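Re: weekly structure request thread

Next one in the queue (185 aa):
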Amino acid sequence: MKRKLLAAFAAVALVGGFVVAAELKSGPQSGEKVPGPFHPFNVTGEDAGQKQCLYCKNGDSPVAVVFSRSPECPMTQKLIKALDEATVKNAKAEMGSYVVYLTGDEKQDAAIKEIAKKHSLKQIILSIDDVQGPSKYDISKDADVTVVLYTDRVVKANHTFAKGKLTEQDIEKVVSDVSKILPTK
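Done, posted below.
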C-alpha cells in the first residue's frame, strides 16, 4: 500500500514538475506594453563601450530583444545569428534587434565581441546588464533565454526557455514569429 501511495505521489510530482516548467514566464508578455528605458553596456554597434538605451534607439520600430544568461551557449548563439539574419532581411521595415547578456560583468566584452565576430553578426547589438536584468522587465531568474518581440512598444510574442531547453525547433518558431512584429503588406 505504501509503495502504491509513494508511486502515485511521485507520478503527481513528476507531472506537476512538467506543468511548472511549461509555465515559466519571464519578461513582458504578449499584449503588454514594453516596460520602458534601461541602459545596458553596449559591446557592439555604434555605441560600443558606452551605456545606451536600445529601447529608446529603436522607438516604435519592430524589435527582437533577447535576454540571455549564457553567452557561451551554442543554441543561444544560433538563435542570435538567426535573429540577426531576420533583422538584415527586414531592414526596410526598420527592424532592430539586440541581446542583453545578464552577466553583470562588463569585463566579458572581449568574449562577447568574439561571438559577434565568430558569427559575422551584422545588425544585432550585443550588450551587458545586471544579472537580474532591467528591474521593470521581470526577467525570471529561472529563465536562461527570454525573447521578446515587439512593435509600437507592445509585445507581440514572448518565448522563454530554461537552461538547456532551447532547441532548433524553438529557434525556428521564434524566427517565424518575427512576422508578428512586421508591418502588414
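DSSP finds five helices and six strands in the chain. The two ends are 64 Å apart (CA to CA).
Next request, please.
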